[in-house]
Amino acid sequence: MKQKIENLSRRNFIKTGMGALGTIAGTLATGSAFSQVLSLKTPRQTLGPFFPDEGDPVHEVRENLDFRLPVSEANDNDLTFIKGHSGKARGQTVYVKGKVLFKSSNGAMEPQRGAVIIMWNASASGRYNHRGDIDTTRFKHPRTGEWVERTHDENFQYWGRAITDIEGNYWFKTVVPGFYPVDIEKGWYRPPHLHFMIMAPGIPQLVTQLYFKGEQIENNDFLKSLNAKDLILRDQRLSTEEQENVIVEFQSDPAGKFTDGLVGQYDFVLGL
Ligand SMILES: [Fe+2]
To answer: 74, 106, 147, 203: which could join 64 in a potential S-S bond, CB 3.0 to 4.6 Å?
Structure first.
C-alpha cells in the first residue's frame, strides 16, 4: 500500500511537471576538476499525453521484475530490443549520449551522479505503446501522398531508464521514431522526437524533448520541414537559441565506439 501511495504521488508529481525545490547542499562539490560556464540550460517542454504510467501501456514492457519500480523505470537503456524476444525493433538505430549537469547560480557546471533519466518515444511508424494513442492511426503522408499506418512494434521497448555514472554520463539506444499528425487540417505533424524526464537529488525535475537532424538521418530534408513548423518545438516561450539547442545532430560516432547506429551528443543542463 505504501508503494501504491508513493507511485500515486509520483504520478501527480510527473503529471504536473512540478518538482519540489529540494536543497542542493551536498550536490555541488567545490573544487571539482570539471567546470565550464555559459552553457544554456535545457529548456522545459511538455510531458505530452503518452508517458508510460502504470496501466497505460497497451503491451506492458517490463524487463525488470522488481515490482517496486514503476513501469516507467522497469526497463534498461537499450530500446532496440526486449529481453527474451529474438526480433529487433524496426527503424533507424541511433544512440543519444552525454551528461547530466547542474548549472549553479554562478554559472559553474557540475556533473550529476546518480541522476535518473527516463526516455520514451514512438515506434518507427509513429505509434506510442499507450492506450491513449488511438487517433488517426492511418493518414496520408503530406509529402508523398502515400498512406502511413501508425502501428505497434512488438520488438520495440518504447521506454527505458538510464542512471548517470560518477561523471554524469548517460546513454540510450533507440530507433528514430516516426512523425505523426496532430492536426492534419492545419498541417501540424509532430516531427520525430524523444521524450525525457530527468530526476536528480535536490534539483527540480526536468521534462523535455529532443529532435533530430543530420545528413545520415533518413528523410532528413522532410524532418527539417517538420522541425520548422512544430508548435511545441517552436513554442514562443523558447528562445531561438533554446529551440536550436534541442535539435540534436546525429552522425557516425567520431570516437568509433558505437558502430551500429548514428550518435547524437546532448548534455542536459539542469538548474533551479
Ligand atoms: Fe510525443
So the answer is: 74
